[in-house]
Give the backbone structure.
Amino acid sequence: MKPKQEKIIYPVQSSFKILKYTVPYFDMQYHYHQDYELVYIEKGSGLRYIGNSIHKFQDGDMVLIGPDLAHVWINYKKYHTEKPELRAEAVVLQFSGDLFSSMTDLPEFALIRALLQKARCGIHIVGPIRTRIAGYLEQCLESRGIGKIIQLLNILDTLSRKKELVLLNPQDCAAAAGYRDKRIDAVYHFVLSNFNRNICTRDAASVAHMEESAFCRFLKEKTRKTFTQLLNETRINHACQLLCETDLAVGQIAFECGFNTFANFYRQFKKYTGVTPGEYRK
């Protein structure tokens, strides 16, 4: 999918935008813009594409996206044809990076400044913190004037202090101030360069100059993924790209992406995307 640039138009006499959508299914295009965006899925399930990451989403999913990071939410087929009574609901908050430009250099904004830097990679917000953020979003929808700004600051302040944040494209954030780890950089570079070969955890541990058991703990702590999950996700992301941009046979794509058997490719593809390769291409 090739993303399209979108320009966000803010309401008159408002410095940012917050809306609640209730639709049969999400029908947005794969797009990007220069603004930050917090998306809370109240109801709905399907596939979420943010940058190079592809993940399933369901009720309660919440992400923070930075400028110029392409994204789209696509509901499963049942929302279009099988069960017309299903609805998709989301709260979307958008704001410009210039909104707090006069304050981001203040010491009190240090944590928020770091949060916004990480948002450029895409942040998946998990854990109990989502309930608190959802409450602030609801109050923001109902507030007027300075009350709306206060709720936005509450959201950013709360997110900046919590650990239940997962980077969706950590390989693109090597330059993020204060979050660089050369071992992670090396592992991602190794995986992206060799995912079409038969590689294993021991190979990646060697690249990181660590014992295999220590490496497994390190990778899980940094990415919340095992090496096998990271490798398969990279392979499936590449397969999705080939399915969209080429006419290669599905079996050929499986071997191009490093899968030794078509059965394993088929199983892993459906696990990560929720659909078969043929359905995805359609």
The mean pLDDT is 88. The chain is about 40% helix and 20% strand. The chain has two domains: 4-171, 181-281. The CA atoms of residues 79 and 86 lie 6 Å apart.
